[in-house]
Amino acid sequence: xxxxxxxxxxxxxxxxxxxxxxxxxxxxxxxxxxxxxxxxxxxxxxxxxxxxxxxxxxxxxxxxxxxxxxxxxxxxxxxxxxxxxxxxxxxxxxxxxxxxxxxxxxxxxxxxxxxxxxxxxxxxxxxxxxxxxxxxxxxxxxxxxxxxxxxxxxxxxxxxxxxxxxxxxxxxxxxxxxxxxxxxxxxxxxxxxxxxxxxxxxxxxxxxxxxxxxxxxxxxxxxxxxxxxxxxxxxxxxxxxxxxxxxxxxxxxxxxxxxxxxxxxxxxxxxxxxxxxxxxxxxxxxxxxxxxxxxxxxxxxxxxxxxxxxxxxxxxxxxxxxxxxxxxxxxxxxxxxxxxxxxxxxxxxxxxxxxxxxxxxxxxxxxxxxxxxxxxxxxxxxxxxxxxxxxxxxxxxxxxxxxxxxxxxxxxxxx
Length: 415
Fold this sequence. Notes:
Layout: E1 6-7, H1 9-22, E2 26-31, E3 40-41, E4 52-53, H2 58-68, H3 71-81, H4 90-103, H5 114-131, H6 142-151, E5 160-163, H7 169-176, E6 181-182, E7 185-186, E8 192-193, H8 195-198, E9 208-212, E10 219-222, E11 225-228, H9 247-264, E12 269-274, H10 281-293, E13 297-302, H11 311-319, E14 323-326, E15 330-333, E16 336-340, H12 348-354, E17 358-359, E18 368-369, H13 374-382
Parallel strand pairs: 1-16, 2-5, 2-12, 5-9, 6-9, 12-13, 13-14
Antiparallel strand pairs: 3-4, 7-8, 10-11, 14-15, 15-16, 17-18
């Protein structure tokens, strides 16, 4: 990182608050596996600051699932790990298991034939379901704050939520708040996936969209349809890396990924990412293609770690100036990597806004940008509707009723 490159978080976050509060732009939220780790709970599923994550991240989930299997399965998975290139996580392991299940037939590999690997895949899915099935804690929480922001603004376009997570936390938050949403399924007894409706924009703007890119708890194949059972088990429909399933099981993923591509190529679009590591090659390929094709799309990636610890996100942002990365100690904006340097304004309104995204140095802890944590980001979004904390009139944005477009990468970064 060049020491001469500096970014002012006050400028960008004040403008973002204004844009988010107005409801004019087409906005999407991408919720990665790191988001549920921001919800900390005690043994009674009550939120507590120093509790355990509600759901572990991908690395934690991989360890938990493998450890929960029988010893014989664990030994076999240890052998399979040596055959997997790249990032070895639970989805990569499951993909390798499914490939062998489809490819070897009656032949035996690592002591199992194709049917044996198919059963192993189901056992892995069952353990995944066990670990991603916790219910949303009662009372205020980051997911309820996110839904509060979504439902609290009159909008011209539906907010679209994209997530590779299997859990039902977003669904629970929508339903507790009695906020309407659509997830691609239709029906009552066993709602079935309708790919034609995924492409439509004919729902009222107050209906949010929820797209589960890697499948979900409760999805199941029944006959020639993918249905939503309303249960919390996961035995079948978890995203297969190689996508060599039959047409029925391939269809949800292809339609949902196409929806992500369609959203990103629409004019005047903003996608906010939280809890996503940018290690999923399929999702990153869609983002990269859309950013290259549509200069009117902006992707804001809020990352939990320091800027030097987010190589996948920063590499994409450095090659695509319409993607910005906001990390704990710095940012990549308009392709320029720099450290944070807040303004020195003593304006009370600016200080109030700053408290929602910035922590000053405390004891031996350095200053820190907070919004890489999903809980802080959800609170920041909810507070965009607090009128007394709206960004003040300034020379760069003289009319607070007009969008502050200088947050988008076409503007010049602070240096």
